[in-house]
Write a structure and sequence with these properties.
mainly alpha; 3 helices; about 0% strand
Length: about 100
């Protein structure tokens, strides 16, 4: 009888923890998407001030990548910043 009662509690607790883990993973994913989209938005809104996009890619994104990596750590390479810009533009295209 005690084993059956413990099994019930174990199942309830396991279900609760698994549910919270799943919800947390979803919230983290939403937050990452929000940040990446907004980084892309910031890049696009600022790149419009520059006429020569190739120049922008080479100089501005390199500097931005270096500074963000210094302050925030890995994940802000030039290629990642370009992906964030493309992600933003793609979502904007879908929304229009």
């Amino acid at each position: 009888m005690l084993e059956k009662y413990n099994n019930k509690m174990i199942q309830e607790i396991t279900n609760l923890v698994e549910e919270v883990k799943s919800n947390l993973a979803n919230e983290i994913n939403k937050s990452i998407i929000y940040v990446y989209w907004n980084i892309g938005r910031i890049i696009v809104s600022n790149e419009n001030e520059f006429n020569n996009r190739l120049e922008y890619d080479k100089e501005i994104l390199k500097g931005l990548s270096d500074e963000l990596t210094k302050y925030l750590g890995k994940g802000y390479s030039i290629s990642n910043l370009k992906y964030m810009r493309v992600f933003y533009k793609h979502i904007q295209t879908l929304m229009n």
